[in-house]
Amino acid sequence: MTAATIAPTRLRLGLAALAVGAFSALGTPAYARGPDGIADVAEKVIDAVVNISTSQTVEAKGGGGGSNAMPQLPPGSPFEEFFDDFFKNRKGPGGGSKGGENSPAPRKTNSLGSGFIIDTSGVVVTNNHVIADADEINVILNDGTKIKAELVGVDKKTDLAVLKFKPSKPLVSVKFGDSDKLRLGDWVVAIGNPFSLGGTVTAGIVSAKNRDISSGPYDSYIQTDASINRGNSGGPLFNLDGDVIGVNTLIISPSGGSIGIGFAVPSKTVAGVVDQLRQFGELRRGWLGVRIQSVTDEIAESLNIKPPRGALVAGVDDKGPAKPAGIEPGDVVVKFDGKDVKDPKDLSRVVADTAVGKEVDVVIIRKSQEETKKVTLGRLQDADKVQAAVKTDEPPPEKTVTQKALGLDLAALSKDLRARYKIKDSVKGVVVTNVDANSDAAEKRLSAGDVIVEVAQEAVSSGADIQKRVDQLKKDGKKSVLLLVSNADGELRFVALSVQ
Q1: Do domains 286-379 and 403-498 have the same CATH topology?
Q2: 159 is in an annotated binding site
Q3: Long-range contacts of 439-445, Cβ-Cβ distance < 8 Å, separation of 24 or more
Q4: Residues with active-site annotation
């Protein structure tokens, strides 16, 4: 179980609440313990829940002073405390040596997690982090039978994995329920292998839905107060019908133990990922081919969008599906394939969940008017694109500044300025040569070398153009102006600045 360390200061408040809860529990009526159906659910599904045992060979390197280095154990391993004590507080064999023939040999480490059977042919679902980098994977059934398993496929973005093994006897399987039908306060049951104790049943309620904790691009977790601990990773979260409505994946905890804040990947997401992993051994996600950003209050005011909503298109891939469909930078996507888009995360999730090659209707707002574009989705390539931000010493700003506006020193692009700021020839607009440190522009992280391409969705080529547009917006009573800004490489983003 991955222990997330989100808002650690808030976690301390739980200690005071614990004492209050212990006192008030004395007068708690019997029905508050939960519905009677929990025992029936547990009895029905317990044999479909399995333990996942993995082993990994790690290189033990000699540390400073000759002590053996602690192996890097997979998250949630029940042996973490043991190895921490052994390697940090004691010296293993050969202690005091500095390499050579006395260097520690590679050693094998073990990790335990949970999973569940979805097909009696021997198909198991678990978390990717439970089996990541494992040399050997074993499935341990509820009766203790241990069987070697093979990896079918993984999806790192949702932290899911599918395994397969050959059963030696008939199995019990479980099916997915509809996580979209969950309501806050619904009772749920978690079963798994916390701290390698095996077959442990806990119950609680759905505390929240659609939680985004910034752990991945498609976050939409079910939050529950059912006790989930290290080792529960990959285990199922059931509704009272015995259907899997989530896969237990994350906890927030200062100590590694449950404090009543656990997260499960919803079954709607899991079912789609599992189907593709079983069919293709990989994920084939839809791709729209746009870069998007949030529609802030200032941007919404500039674009006359009320209330603020949708995903603002900051850039369009020349080779992507959105380009031939007529989607442009500055468009705001408010609906995709019949589903409302409240924010960029919504759009990312719904596009990823849509079949490659499907033609969909994309509703955009352009210049205060709604338009519908038909887009045939491409396939998202999962190769991670890492873009390193290289900071260079900036030369002093040009002595002769064409115009000053919005707290910016502005100049028409020239060969000298392109060379100074390494701006590509394809980038057109007005270059920023200096930013007033006390301006709104500085707060929005504009910097020397940025190029203003458009002001209020109109192209500009000089500082005078920008000043003219700003003056007109002030006359019209606008509070902010929307800039389309490019970096030296041509990557675009929208920035709203106050004109007051």
Answers
A1: yes
A2: yes
A3: 439/406, 439/407, 439/408, 440/406, 440/407, 440/497, 440/498, 441/406, 441/407, 441/408, 441/495, 441/497, 442/407, 444/495, 444/496, 444/497
A4: 129, 159, 233
